[in-house]
Design goal:
Number of helices: 18
Structural class: mainly alpha
CATH class of the largest domain: Mainly Alpha
Distance between the termini: 55 Å
CATH topology of the largest domain: Fic-like fold
Radius of gyration: 23 Å
Helix content: 55-70%
CATH superfamily of the largest domain: Fido-like domain
CATH architecture of the largest domain: Orthogonal Bundle
Oligomer: single chain
Largest sheet: 3 strands, antiparallel
Order of helices and strands: HHHHHHEEEEHHHHHHHHEHHEEHH
Number of strands: 7
Length: 415
Protein backbone atom coordinates (compact mmCIF):
# COMPACT_ATOMS: atom_id res chain seq x y z
CA UNK A 1 0.00 0.00 0.00
CA UNK A 2 2.72 2.46 0.98
CA UNK A 3 4.66 1.64 -2.15
CA UNK A 4 1.56 2.36 -4.21
CA UNK A 5 1.11 5.71 -2.55
CA UNK A 6 4.75 6.56 -3.14
CA UNK A 7 4.27 5.67 -6.80
CA UNK A 8 1.36 8.08 -7.26
CA UNK A 9 3.16 11.22 -6.11
CA UNK A 10 4.05 12.65 -9.51
CA UNK A 11 1.43 13.81 -12.07
CA UNK A 12 3.33 11.93 -14.76
CA UNK A 13 1.89 8.72 -13.29
CA UNK A 14 -1.51 9.53 -14.84
CA UNK A 15 -0.10 9.93 -18.37
CA UNK A 16 -1.24 9.71 -21.07
CA UNK A 17 -3.84 12.41 -20.53
CA UNK A 18 -4.83 12.29 -24.19
CA UNK A 19 -5.23 9.01 -26.08
CA UNK A 20 -3.32 8.22 -29.24
CA UNK A 21 -5.12 6.09 -31.84
CA UNK A 22 -5.53 5.61 -35.59
CA UNK A 23 -8.15 8.32 -36.06
CA UNK A 24 -11.25 6.44 -34.93
CA UNK A 25 -11.75 8.77 -31.97
CA UNK A 26 -11.76 11.81 -34.27
CA UNK A 27 -14.30 10.07 -36.50
CA UNK A 28 -16.52 9.35 -33.49
CA UNK A 29 -16.17 12.97 -32.31
CA UNK A 30 -17.23 14.23 -35.73
CA UNK A 31 -20.20 11.85 -35.74
CA UNK A 32 -21.18 13.13 -32.30
CA UNK A 33 -21.08 16.78 -33.40
CA UNK A 34 -23.27 15.95 -36.41
CA UNK A 35 -25.75 14.05 -34.25
CA UNK A 36 -25.93 16.91 -31.75
CA UNK A 37 -26.45 19.43 -34.56
CA UNK A 38 -29.45 17.43 -35.80
CA UNK A 39 -30.84 17.25 -32.27
CA UNK A 40 -30.34 20.99 -31.68
CA UNK A 41 -32.29 21.84 -34.81
CA UNK A 42 -35.19 19.54 -34.05
CA UNK A 43 -37.44 22.26 -32.57
CA UNK A 44 -37.54 25.88 -31.48
CA UNK A 45 -35.27 27.07 -28.67
CA UNK A 46 -38.06 27.81 -26.17
CA UNK A 47 -39.54 24.32 -26.46
CA UNK A 48 -36.05 22.79 -26.29
CA UNK A 49 -35.38 24.52 -23.00
CA UNK A 50 -38.74 23.47 -21.58
CA UNK A 51 -37.99 19.85 -22.46
CA UNK A 52 -34.51 20.27 -21.00
CA UNK A 53 -36.13 21.07 -17.65
CA UNK A 54 -38.09 17.82 -17.97
CA UNK A 55 -34.83 15.97 -18.61
CA UNK A 56 -32.94 17.31 -15.57
CA UNK A 57 -34.77 14.90 -13.21
CA UNK A 58 -33.99 12.09 -15.68
CA UNK A 59 -30.31 13.02 -15.61
CA UNK A 60 -30.45 13.03 -11.82
CA UNK A 61 -32.27 9.69 -11.74
CA UNK A 62 -29.63 7.94 -13.83
CA UNK A 63 -26.59 9.57 -12.24
CA UNK A 64 -27.78 8.49 -8.80
CA UNK A 65 -28.81 5.07 -10.13
CA UNK A 66 -25.18 4.51 -11.13
CA UNK A 67 -24.36 4.95 -7.44
CA UNK A 68 -26.91 2.26 -6.55
CA UNK A 69 -29.61 4.71 -5.45
CA UNK A 70 -32.84 3.94 -7.31
CA UNK A 71 -35.16 6.85 -6.52
CA UNK A 72 -38.52 6.55 -8.24
CA UNK A 73 -39.30 9.47 -10.62
CA UNK A 74 -42.59 9.87 -8.74
CA UNK A 75 -40.63 10.53 -5.54
CA UNK A 76 -38.34 12.94 -7.39
CA UNK A 77 -41.42 14.79 -8.61
CA UNK A 78 -42.76 14.95 -5.07
CA UNK A 79 -39.45 16.32 -3.79
CA UNK A 80 -39.55 19.07 -6.42
CA UNK A 81 -42.95 19.98 -4.97
CA UNK A 82 -41.57 19.93 -1.40
CA UNK A 83 -43.39 16.69 -0.60
CA UNK A 84 -40.88 14.50 1.24
CA UNK A 85 -41.25 10.95 2.48
CA UNK A 86 -41.53 10.17 6.18
CA UNK A 87 -39.02 7.37 5.68
CA UNK A 88 -35.52 8.78 6.41
CA UNK A 89 -33.75 6.75 3.71
CA UNK A 90 -36.29 7.58 1.03
CA UNK A 91 -36.26 11.24 2.10
CA UNK A 92 -32.46 11.35 1.84
CA UNK A 93 -32.67 9.92 -1.67
CA UNK A 94 -35.20 12.62 -2.59
CA UNK A 95 -32.84 15.32 -1.34
CA UNK A 96 -30.00 13.69 -3.26
CA UNK A 97 -31.98 13.77 -6.51
CA UNK A 98 -33.10 17.33 -5.86
CA UNK A 99 -29.51 18.39 -5.18
CA UNK A 100 -28.34 16.98 -8.50
CA UNK A 101 -31.13 18.78 -10.37
CA UNK A 102 -30.41 22.13 -8.76
CA UNK A 103 -26.63 21.87 -9.24
CA UNK A 104 -27.08 20.80 -12.86
CA UNK A 105 -29.35 23.79 -13.51
CA UNK A 106 -26.94 26.22 -11.83
CA UNK A 107 -24.04 24.82 -13.89
CA UNK A 108 -26.01 25.39 -17.09
CA UNK A 109 -26.89 28.97 -16.13
CA UNK A 110 -23.32 29.74 -15.09
CA UNK A 111 -21.66 28.32 -18.20
CA UNK A 112 -24.14 29.91 -20.60
CA UNK A 113 -23.54 33.31 -19.00
CA UNK A 114 -20.87 34.68 -21.35
CA UNK A 115 -20.21 37.62 -19.03
CA UNK A 116 -18.78 35.25 -16.43
CA UNK A 117 -16.32 32.85 -18.13
CA UNK A 118 -16.10 29.39 -16.55
CA UNK A 119 -13.39 26.78 -17.04
CA UNK A 120 -14.97 23.36 -16.30
CA UNK A 121 -11.59 21.75 -15.55
CA UNK A 122 -10.63 24.33 -12.91
CA UNK A 123 -10.18 23.10 -9.38
CA UNK A 124 -12.37 25.91 -8.04
CA UNK A 125 -15.24 24.92 -10.32
CA UNK A 126 -14.99 21.24 -9.33
CA UNK A 127 -14.92 22.17 -5.65
CA UNK A 128 -17.98 24.39 -6.06
CA UNK A 129 -19.95 21.60 -7.73
CA UNK A 130 -19.10 19.30 -4.84
CA UNK A 131 -19.92 21.96 -2.25
CA UNK A 132 -23.25 22.85 -3.84
CA UNK A 133 -24.27 19.20 -4.14
CA UNK A 134 -23.43 18.22 -0.55
CA UNK A 135 -24.87 21.39 0.95
CA UNK A 136 -28.33 19.94 0.18
CA UNK A 137 -27.72 16.63 1.94
CA UNK A 138 -28.32 15.48 5.50
CA UNK A 139 -25.49 14.94 7.96
CA UNK A 140 -26.05 11.20 7.67
CA UNK A 141 -25.40 11.36 3.93
CA UNK A 142 -22.17 13.26 4.61
CA UNK A 143 -20.86 10.35 6.65
CA UNK A 144 -18.61 7.85 4.87
CA UNK A 145 -17.82 4.43 6.26
CA UNK A 146 -14.54 2.82 5.23
CA UNK A 147 -13.80 -0.88 4.84
CA UNK A 148 -12.53 -1.12 8.41
CA UNK A 149 -15.77 0.37 9.76
CA UNK A 150 -14.38 3.79 10.66
CA UNK A 151 -16.32 6.90 9.77
CA UNK A 152 -15.30 10.16 8.10
CA UNK A 153 -17.27 13.33 7.51
CA UNK A 154 -17.51 14.74 4.02
CA UNK A 155 -16.84 18.47 4.08
CA UNK A 156 -18.67 20.04 1.11
CA UNK A 157 -16.23 21.49 -1.41
CA UNK A 158 -13.12 20.27 0.40
CA UNK A 159 -10.52 18.05 -1.28
CA UNK A 160 -9.76 14.84 0.56
CA UNK A 161 -7.13 14.78 3.29
CA UNK A 162 -6.76 11.01 3.43
CA UNK A 163 -5.72 8.08 1.26
CA UNK A 164 -8.33 6.14 -0.70
CA UNK A 165 -8.54 2.85 -2.53
CA UNK A 166 -11.31 2.22 -5.07
CA UNK A 167 -11.51 -1.40 -6.10
CA UNK A 168 -7.98 -2.28 -7.17
CA UNK A 169 -7.06 1.34 -7.82
CA UNK A 170 -5.05 3.28 -5.27
CA UNK A 171 -5.61 6.99 -5.85
CA UNK A 172 -2.75 9.52 -5.64
CA UNK A 173 -1.46 10.38 -2.20
CA UNK A 174 -3.50 13.19 -0.69
CA UNK A 175 -0.33 15.14 0.07
CA UNK A 176 0.71 15.23 -3.56
CA UNK A 177 -2.57 15.04 -5.46
CA UNK A 178 -3.04 18.85 -5.56
CA UNK A 179 -0.28 18.71 -8.18
CA UNK A 180 -2.35 16.16 -10.07
CA UNK A 181 -5.31 18.53 -9.92
CA UNK A 182 -3.20 21.43 -11.18
CA UNK A 183 -1.99 19.30 -14.09
CA UNK A 184 -5.57 18.20 -14.81
CA UNK A 185 -6.83 21.80 -14.80
CA UNK A 186 -4.16 23.08 -17.19
CA UNK A 187 -4.16 20.14 -19.61
CA UNK A 188 -7.94 20.00 -20.07
CA UNK A 189 -8.49 23.77 -20.11
CA UNK A 190 -10.67 24.28 -23.23
CA UNK A 191 -9.34 27.84 -23.66
CA UNK A 192 -5.75 26.64 -23.99
CA UNK A 193 -4.14 27.11 -27.42
CA UNK A 194 -3.18 23.44 -27.24
CA UNK A 195 -6.92 22.63 -27.26
CA UNK A 196 -7.96 24.84 -30.17
CA UNK A 197 -9.35 21.85 -32.08
CA UNK A 198 -12.99 21.12 -31.21
CA UNK A 199 -12.59 17.44 -32.07
CA UNK A 200 -9.65 17.24 -29.68
CA UNK A 201 -11.72 18.89 -26.96
CA UNK A 202 -14.49 16.32 -27.46
CA UNK A 203 -12.01 13.46 -27.11
CA UNK A 204 -10.66 15.23 -24.03
CA UNK A 205 -14.13 15.22 -22.45
CA UNK A 206 -14.04 11.43 -22.63
CA UNK A 207 -10.43 11.13 -21.43
CA UNK A 208 -10.85 13.65 -18.60
CA UNK A 209 -13.92 11.77 -17.36
CA UNK A 210 -11.68 8.83 -16.52
CA UNK A 211 -8.69 10.80 -15.33
CA UNK A 212 -10.76 12.83 -12.85
CA UNK A 213 -12.25 9.60 -11.48
CA UNK A 214 -8.70 8.19 -11.28
CA UNK A 215 -7.49 11.17 -9.21
CA UNK A 216 -10.51 10.74 -6.88
CA UNK A 217 -10.29 14.29 -5.45
CA UNK A 218 -12.99 14.03 -2.76
CA UNK A 219 -13.68 11.74 0.17
CA UNK A 220 -17.05 10.90 -1.37
CA UNK A 221 -19.24 12.04 -4.25
CA UNK A 222 -16.56 11.65 -6.92
CA UNK A 223 -18.76 9.77 -9.38
CA UNK A 224 -21.45 12.43 -9.31
CA UNK A 225 -18.92 15.25 -9.63
CA UNK A 226 -17.22 13.49 -12.54
CA UNK A 227 -20.51 13.13 -14.42
CA UNK A 228 -21.51 16.73 -13.65
CA UNK A 229 -18.07 17.79 -14.88
CA UNK A 230 -18.65 15.93 -18.16
CA UNK A 231 -22.07 17.60 -18.49
CA UNK A 232 -20.42 20.98 -17.88
CA UNK A 233 -17.76 20.25 -20.51
CA UNK A 234 -20.41 19.41 -23.09
CA UNK A 235 -22.29 22.59 -22.15
CA UNK A 236 -19.14 24.68 -22.49
CA UNK A 237 -18.66 23.61 -26.11
CA UNK A 238 -22.39 23.90 -26.92
CA UNK A 239 -22.60 20.14 -27.31
CA UNK A 240 -25.50 19.69 -24.91
CA UNK A 241 -28.22 20.73 -27.41
CA UNK A 242 -29.55 23.03 -24.66
CA UNK A 243 -29.90 20.03 -22.34
CA UNK A 244 -31.74 17.64 -24.68
CA UNK A 245 -29.58 14.60 -23.93
CA UNK A 246 -27.79 13.03 -21.00
CA UNK A 247 -24.58 11.00 -20.90
CA UNK A 248 -25.66 9.61 -17.50
CA UNK A 249 -28.62 7.78 -19.04
CA UNK A 250 -26.28 5.95 -21.39
CA UNK A 251 -23.73 5.17 -18.70
CA UNK A 252 -26.42 3.85 -16.36
CA UNK A 253 -27.96 1.66 -19.05
CA UNK A 254 -24.52 0.09 -19.62
CA UNK A 255 -23.62 0.15 -15.94
CA UNK A 256 -21.42 -2.95 -15.83
CA UNK A 257 -19.56 -1.99 -19.00
CA UNK A 258 -19.09 1.54 -17.67
CA UNK A 259 -17.39 0.33 -14.50
CA UNK A 260 -15.40 -2.26 -16.39
CA UNK A 261 -14.13 0.34 -18.84
CA UNK A 262 -13.22 2.71 -15.99
CA UNK A 263 -11.29 -0.06 -14.23
CA UNK A 264 -9.50 -1.12 -17.42
CA UNK A 265 -8.34 2.45 -18.04
CA UNK A 266 -6.67 2.33 -14.59
CA UNK A 267 -4.29 -0.37 -15.84
CA UNK A 268 -0.58 0.33 -16.27
CA UNK A 269 1.13 0.42 -19.65
CA UNK A 270 1.30 -3.03 -21.20
CA UNK A 271 4.51 -3.31 -23.18
CA UNK A 272 6.42 -1.12 -25.61
CA UNK A 273 3.49 -0.81 -28.02
CA UNK A 274 1.10 0.66 -25.45
CA UNK A 275 2.03 4.31 -25.51
CA UNK A 276 4.73 6.09 -23.56
CA UNK A 277 2.92 6.97 -20.35
CA UNK A 278 2.59 5.13 -17.08
CA UNK A 279 -1.03 4.09 -17.76
CA UNK A 280 -2.28 2.05 -20.69
CA UNK A 281 -2.92 4.11 -23.81
CA UNK A 282 -4.87 1.23 -25.38
CA UNK A 283 -7.26 1.03 -22.43
CA UNK A 284 -7.76 4.80 -22.45
CA UNK A 285 -8.56 4.62 -26.16
CA UNK A 286 -11.12 1.88 -25.46
CA UNK A 287 -12.72 3.92 -22.70
CA UNK A 288 -12.95 7.00 -24.94
CA UNK A 289 -14.52 4.93 -27.73
CA UNK A 290 -17.07 3.55 -25.29
CA UNK A 291 -17.83 7.01 -23.90
CA UNK A 292 -18.24 8.67 -27.30
CA UNK A 293 -20.34 5.81 -28.70
CA UNK A 294 -22.56 6.08 -25.63
CA UNK A 295 -22.95 9.82 -26.23
CA UNK A 296 -23.81 9.23 -29.90
CA UNK A 297 -26.37 6.58 -28.93
CA UNK A 298 -28.06 8.95 -26.49
CA UNK A 299 -28.22 11.87 -28.92
CA UNK A 300 -29.73 9.60 -31.58
CA UNK A 301 -32.23 8.23 -29.05
CA UNK A 302 -33.35 11.73 -28.13
CA UNK A 303 -33.56 12.84 -31.76
CA UNK A 304 -35.97 9.97 -32.42
CA UNK A 305 -37.87 10.65 -29.19
CA UNK A 306 -38.31 14.32 -30.13
CA UNK A 307 -39.63 13.70 -33.63
CA UNK A 308 -42.34 16.34 -34.07
CA UNK A 309 -44.91 14.13 -35.79
CA UNK A 310 -44.57 11.42 -33.13
CA UNK A 311 -44.86 13.93 -30.29
CA UNK A 312 -47.98 15.48 -31.81
CA UNK A 313 -49.53 12.01 -32.05
CA UNK A 314 -48.63 11.25 -28.44
CA UNK A 315 -49.84 14.68 -27.33
CA UNK A 316 -53.24 14.00 -28.88
CA UNK A 317 -53.33 10.57 -27.21
CA UNK A 318 -52.51 12.19 -23.88
CA UNK A 319 -55.24 14.80 -24.34
CA UNK A 320 -57.77 12.12 -25.28
CA UNK A 321 -56.91 10.27 -22.06
CA UNK A 322 -57.24 13.45 -19.98
CA UNK A 323 -60.62 14.25 -21.58
CA UNK A 324 -61.79 10.69 -20.88
CA UNK A 325 -60.73 11.08 -17.24
CA UNK A 326 -62.63 14.34 -16.94
CA UNK A 327 -59.48 16.41 -16.39
CA UNK A 328 -59.50 18.24 -19.72
CA UNK A 329 -61.80 20.14 -21.97
CA UNK A 330 -61.09 18.98 -25.50
CA UNK A 331 -60.12 22.53 -26.57
CA UNK A 332 -57.12 22.43 -24.21
CA UNK A 333 -55.27 20.20 -26.69
CA UNK A 334 -55.02 23.11 -29.14
CA UNK A 335 -53.19 25.19 -26.56
CA UNK A 336 -50.73 22.40 -25.80
CA UNK A 337 -50.09 21.66 -29.48
CA UNK A 338 -49.50 25.31 -30.36
CA UNK A 339 -47.26 25.84 -27.35
CA UNK A 340 -45.19 22.77 -28.30
CA UNK A 341 -44.77 23.93 -31.90
CA UNK A 342 -44.01 27.57 -31.08
CA UNK A 343 -42.62 27.46 -27.53
CA UNK A 344 -45.06 30.12 -26.37
CA UNK A 345 -48.35 31.70 -27.44
CA UNK A 346 -50.21 34.84 -26.41
CA UNK A 347 -53.58 34.95 -24.70
CA UNK A 348 -55.28 36.37 -27.83
CA UNK A 349 -53.85 33.48 -29.88
CA UNK A 350 -55.03 30.99 -27.27
CA UNK A 351 -58.51 32.48 -27.39
CA UNK A 352 -58.50 32.34 -31.19
CA UNK A 353 -57.43 28.68 -31.53
CA UNK A 354 -59.81 27.47 -28.81
CA UNK A 355 -62.73 29.66 -29.94
CA UNK A 356 -63.83 30.18 -26.34
CA UNK A 357 -64.77 33.07 -24.08
CA UNK A 358 -62.28 34.88 -21.87
CA UNK A 359 -63.72 33.19 -18.76
CA UNK A 360 -63.56 29.69 -20.27
CA UNK A 361 -60.01 30.29 -21.50
CA UNK A 362 -58.96 31.41 -18.01
CA UNK A 363 -60.43 28.26 -16.49
CA UNK A 364 -58.56 26.12 -19.03
CA UNK A 365 -55.21 27.92 -18.71
CA UNK A 366 -55.51 27.90 -14.91
CA UNK A 367 -56.04 24.13 -15.03
CA UNK A 368 -53.09 23.63 -17.40
CA UNK A 369 -50.92 25.82 -15.17
CA UNK A 370 -51.90 23.88 -12.04
CA UNK A 371 -51.00 20.63 -13.82
CA UNK A 372 -47.62 22.09 -14.79
CA UNK A 373 -48.36 21.89 -18.52
CA UNK A 374 -47.90 25.59 -19.27
CA UNK A 375 -46.23 28.53 -17.54
CA UNK A 376 -48.04 31.90 -17.76
CA UNK A 377 -45.90 35.04 -17.93
CA UNK A 378 -46.96 38.67 -18.31
CA UNK A 379 -44.93 40.35 -21.04
CA UNK A 380 -45.68 44.03 -21.48
CA UNK A 381 -49.48 44.17 -21.86
CA UNK A 382 -49.84 40.57 -23.04
CA UNK A 383 -50.22 37.36 -21.09
CA UNK A 384 -48.02 34.68 -22.65
CA UNK A 385 -48.23 30.93 -22.13
CA UNK A 386 -44.93 29.05 -22.28
CA UNK A 387 -44.24 25.35 -22.85
CA UNK A 388 -43.78 23.32 -19.66
CA UNK A 389 -43.41 19.57 -19.19
CA UNK A 390 -43.70 18.04 -15.69
CA UNK A 391 -42.00 14.74 -14.90
CA UNK A 392 -45.23 12.74 -14.90
CA UNK A 393 -45.99 13.60 -18.52
CA UNK A 394 -42.74 12.05 -19.80
CA UNK A 395 -44.13 8.51 -20.39
CA UNK A 396 -46.92 10.02 -22.49
CA UNK A 397 -44.83 12.27 -24.70
CA UNK A 398 -41.32 10.81 -24.45
CA UNK A 399 -41.64 7.09 -23.69
CA UNK A 400 -38.42 5.28 -22.90
CA UNK A 401 -36.76 7.99 -20.85
CA UNK A 402 -37.15 5.87 -17.73
CA UNK A 403 -37.36 2.08 -17.21
CA UNK A 404 -40.70 0.58 -18.32
CA UNK A 405 -41.80 -0.33 -14.79
CA UNK A 406 -41.25 3.25 -13.59
CA UNK A 407 -43.17 4.69 -16.54
CA UNK A 408 -46.09 2.33 -15.91
CA UNK A 409 -46.31 3.61 -12.33
CA UNK A 410 -46.20 7.22 -13.57
CA UNK A 411 -48.99 6.69 -16.09
CA UNK A 412 -51.12 4.88 -13.53
CA UNK A 413 -50.70 7.70 -11.02
CA UNK A 414 -51.78 10.25 -13.59
CA UNK A 415 -51.08 13.95 -13.73
Amino acid sequence: MNKAFEFHTDPSSMEPLFPSDNGELEALSLELTESIARLSGSMNLTTRRAIAELLRPMNSYYSNLIEGHDTHPIDINRALNNDYSGDPTKRDRQHEAQAHIEVHRSIFEEIKDVSNPVIPSSVDFLKRMHRDFYSHLSEEMKTVRSKDGSERKVIPGELRDCEVEVGKHVAPSHESFPRFMDRFEVFYDPTSTANSSKLKRIISIAASHHRLAWIHPFVDGNGRVVRLFSDASFMYDNLDADGLWSISRGLARTHDEYYSMLANADLPRMGNHDGRGNLSNAMLVDFCKYFLRTAIDQTKFMYAALDTDNILTRLNTFCDAMVARGKFKTEMRYILIDVFLKGKISKPDAMRITNTSDKTLKNMTDALTEMGLITPKKESILMMYYAAYPILISPWLFPGLYPTSKESDMMELGI
